[in-house]
Design a protein that fits this description.
transferase; 445 residues; 5-stranded mixed beta barrel; globular; 23% strand; Rossmann fold; 4Fe-4S; OB fold (Dihydrolipoamide Acetyltransferase, E2P); 3 domains; 13 helices; pyruvate-formate lyase- activating enzyme; 6-stranded parallel β-sheet
Length: 445
């Protein structure tokens, strides 16, 4: 017998998402499914019938944020059916289910079942929001790819193309939380991009855990996905959220460099500029390969924005190794650093490495890298000052200003122009001086 979906009609919902853009894409997909069944978004400041929390577990700090948010949502919505899903739910599901007020816990591989669990929950005789209902976190389900596509409040969409990771970095719990590498088919992803175009979307960011590993499920290749998406009419821009350097091939670089719609914007996880630390992390490359990839990007796309992830304070990272990493990054053509402090994660091989970096030292090292990042970002903005580049303007008005990004990810500010912003137009703009780190003035051309 088919489930009675009418039990959800007219119910109100609130959505809370922590962590990566992949999580946002998955939350958005569930939100769309619930709206199609008559669920409406709760008004700001009011309690809801349904609260869905999509969690992150990339660091111990992320776990703390998850717990704090869960308790706050339960406290503020005492009569709601509270659903906790995502990576933290996958790793600590039974523990979360014991939190008073949490009703449904769904692991990372079964997010697509959330709507089904809610229907069952509200269909039960005598069921109240204080009842415990279900925990679905079995690892067997971490082999299935679940679609996800979201839009933010600006102009871009986030399309989930891949999930999971087969790498075994010593500091990371993501393979346990997300499972094996898997992906959607090129045909299904092109269909989602076409739907975004029909809805008026102009920019899509490709998201995943290890995007370059695309094809494990379907036998296809990421470069062929790029070629196919480039043919979708209506999508003006694509960005690739993150790509392992050892999976960034010359072929992919050539395709992106010649593409109609893929932007000169790269995000690469380095994690350390010390080969010794990279070996401790069990990363699949060394600094020479990373340098080669950066050089090839700049050779093919001289104006490209290159963001780089770096972890500081990894077990085994002596002061000498950190200084080696800092000096390496100083000499590379990177645009911006995304700095993360190493976090102890239960069950990871890194815990067997004897040298532990103190929190105070991690803080000092983070500051040194952030200072370097700010200098490099300002230098990049100054390098392009005076250039005319295409800008995709965001819909929102903030204190009488509108904001947008150039093709190479320079963020620009201009007086709000309703005809431009509200249409999400792409216009030519002349880049002016940097107003503050990461934002420059501009004039419209």
């Amino acid at each position: 017998m088919l489930p009675d979906t009418t039990v959800l009609q007219g119910k109100t919902a609130l959505f809370f998402t922590l962590g990566c853009k992949l999580n946002f894409a998955e939350t958005s997909t569930i939100g769309r499914q619930l709206r199609e069944l008559g669920v409406v978004l709760a008004t700001e400041g009011s309690s809801a019938d349904i609260c869905i929390i999509n969690t992150c577990s990339v660091t111990s700090a992320a776990d703390r944020k998850d717990r704090t948010l869960i308790h706050r949502v339960v406290r503020e919505n005492p009569h709601a059916a509270v659903v906790v899903m995502g990576c933290y739910a996958q790793l600590k599901g039974e523990e979360i289910l014991n939190i008073p007020g949490v009703n449904i816990v769904v692991g990372a591989g079964r997010k697509s079942e959330v709507v089904e669990h809610l229907i069952t929950f509200f269909s039960g005789e005598g069921v109240t929001p204080t009842n415990k209902h279900h925990y679905a976190g079995e690892r067997i389900h971490l082999h299935r790819f679940e679609e996800g596509c979201s839009s933010d409040d600006r102009t871009r969409h986030f399309l989930k193309v891949q999930d999971g990771c087969n790498y075994g970095c010593t500091y990371c719990t993501i393979p346990k939380a997300r499972g094996v590498s898997r992906n959607g088919s090129i045909a299904s992803l092109v269909a989602q991009a076409e739907r975004v175009a029909q809805e008026g979307g102009k920019e899509i960011v490709l998201t995943g855990v290890n995007i370059g590993d695309f094809g494990r499920s379907t036998g296809e290749q990421f470069v062929d996905l790029v070629r196919a998406l480039d043919q979708v009419n209506g999508i003006e821009r694509y960005r690739i959220s993150s790509l392992e350097p050892d999976l960034l091939s010359d072929e992919l670089l050539e395709v992106v460099a010649q593409s109609r719609s893929f932007m000169p914007h790269w995000h690469l996880p380095l994690q350390s500029g010390s080969d010794t630390v990279l070996a401790l992390m069990k990363r699949r490359y060394r600094t020479q390969l990373f340098s080669d990839r950066l050089a090839r990007i700049k050779e093919m796309m001289p104006a490209a924005f290159i963001g780089v992830d770096v972890i500081v304070g990894m077990r085994g990272e002596t002061l000498e190794f950190f200084e080696e990493s800092l000096a390496y990054l100083e000499g590379q053509p990177v645009t911006q650093l995304h700095v993360f402090s190493y976090s102890e994660r239960s069950g990871t091989p890194a815990l067997s490495i004897p040298l532990v970096v103190s929190p105070e030292e991690k803080k000092e090292r983070s500051k040194a890298l952030i200072d370097l990042s700010n200098r490099k970002l300002s230098s990049f903005y100054k390098e392009h000052e005076g250039e005319k580049r295409p800008v995709l303007w965001e819909h929102s008005c903030v204190d009488g200003k509108m904001y947008g990004f150039t093709d190479n990810y320079i963020r620009l500010e201009h007086e709000f122009c309703p005809d431009i912003a509200l249409s999400g137009a792409i216009t030519q703009a002349k880049i002016g001086r940097e107003k503050e780190p990461g934002i420059a003035f501009c004039s419209l051309e």
